[in-house]
Amino acid sequence: MQRIRSAQLYEEAQQHIVGGVNSPSRSFKAVGGGAPVFMKKGQGARFWDVDDNQYIDYLAAFGPIITGHAHPKITEAIVRAAHDGTLYGTATEHEIRLAEQLKAAIPSMDKVRFVNSGTEAVMTTIRVARAFTGRNKIIKFAGCYHGHADLVLVAAGSGPSTLGIPDSAGIPPSIASEVITVPFNELDGLRLALERWGDQVAAVMVEPIVGNFGMVMPKPGFLEALCKMTREAGALVIYDEVISAFRFHYGSSQTFSAFPDQDAIRPDLTALGKIIGGGLPIGAYGGRADLMAMIAPLGPAYQAGTMAGNPASVLAGLACLEVLREPGVYTRMEAMATRLCEGLQASADKHGIPLTINRIVGAFSTHFCDHPVTNYEEAQGSDGEQFAHFFRLMLDRGIYLAPSKYEAWFLTTAHTDADIEETVAAADASFQEMAAGR
Ligand code: PMP
């Protein structure tokens, strides 16, 4: 497969855009470097690059594109927004409708505020927690990524860990020292941290279902104990559901059937993003009414945004959620993901390639290792070079995966059985090539 135009554009892009990309996770640094692919068009589960190569898309733009590219209902919503003017700097009725939908699906959200990205949503939940508790420290879990704000770019997963920079430069030690990092899926670290600093901790922040060092479920009882221990310390529980909300079912982790006792895992605050904007920029945070009342104009904690709740993002988000409410949507994505994972595993086994797959409904991660992946350390222990090799072989066969061993494969409502068959065949040929050492 030739990607001449992508290579040319990459050369050009590097003269103008730092690193040639507007987000480091789009570069191919973690998979051996070189020119990333420049795309020009997407339709359904496929997209096309500037050299007219076609790919089946499992990146789904790192999550938001759950209905596939250019879904007619979302396109219609965006066109409507464009015709009516894209920004007023005033309140609109659309914002109320999207807030209502989120509240109906996520019972712990009494009040909602829209922002423009997951990063902003997370940042502000921390501000609310600090304002409310009068404490400064945050506990987070190793490998969880919560956006690029100073406060949480400590032992983050996803991009930073892939690039080998767990802490970013430019973050004052005084800020990093307010963040305590403990291992995911293990209560001892959290218990010790709370014993030592509990009276200074404003919040425990967690991806309740992890999407940033593979797809990782919390072990049974983990979230329940986390919530209990956190509350006993007088701190708040913040769920970062930027990836997980509406990904596995219509709702958040709190309402996911894998967790039997909703009340026991109820967070105080939740951060959202990605899917709720239907592919346009958005973030949202919400939670208990008394906590949300800390935010201006009601309370003393400030947060604002020129673009926040803009009609295009909100209408696209409403259209996306409408598609996701159609019966059978998640069951279909799950059935396809299951078949795909079975095919991948059987083929890897056949060729003697160690592969651990973590699947949750229609999303899964592939780890080149022969041990389970339940925490960041185990994810780090998978073979990045093998992943990079697999990534390139799949790319040349027209299958687009996220360029990082930590990221998930996402099914969308647009993927078809034929896509799954084509992908399994491509993986089989790729594993065969890897086994032959080519
Ligand atoms: N939290 C989580 C769990 C995420 O996965 C991400 C993005 N991958 C973010 C926060 C940050 O979101 P954004 O990129 O929209 O700022």
From TrEMBL:
GO biological process: protoporphyrinogen IX biosynthetic process
Species in which this protein is naturally found: Cohnella herbarum
Catalyzed chemical reaction(s): (S)-4-amino-5-oxopentanoate = 5-aminolevulinate
Record keyword Cytoplasm present: yes
The protein, known as: Glutamate-1-semialdehyde 2,1-aminomutase
Pfam families given in the database record: Aminotran_3
Cofactor: pyridoxal 5'-phosphate
Location of N6-(pyridoxal phosphate)lysine modifications: 274
Oligomeric form and interacting partners: Homodimer.
HAMAP family listed in its UniProt record: HemL_aminotrans_3
Keywords: Cytoplasm, Isomerase, Porphyrin biosynthesis, Pyridoxal phosphate
SUPFAM superfamilies: PLP-dependent transferases
Enzyme class, UniProt record, top EC level: isomerase
PANTHER family xref list: GLUTAMATE-1-SEMIALDEHYDE 2,1-AMINOMUTASE, GLUTAMATE-1-SEMIALDEHYDE 2,1-AMINOMUTASE 2
GO molecular function: glutamate-1-semialdehyde 2,1-aminomutase activity; pyridoxal phosphate binding; transaminase activity
NCBIfam families, A to Z: hemL (TIGR00713), PRK00062.1 (NF000818), PRK12389.1 (NF009055)
Chief localization: cytoplasm
A single cellular component GO annotation: cytoplasm
Protein family (similarity comment): Belongs to the class-III pyridoxal-phosphate-dependent aminotransferase family. HemL subfamily.
Cellular compartment(s): Cytoplasm
Known EC number: 5.4.3.8
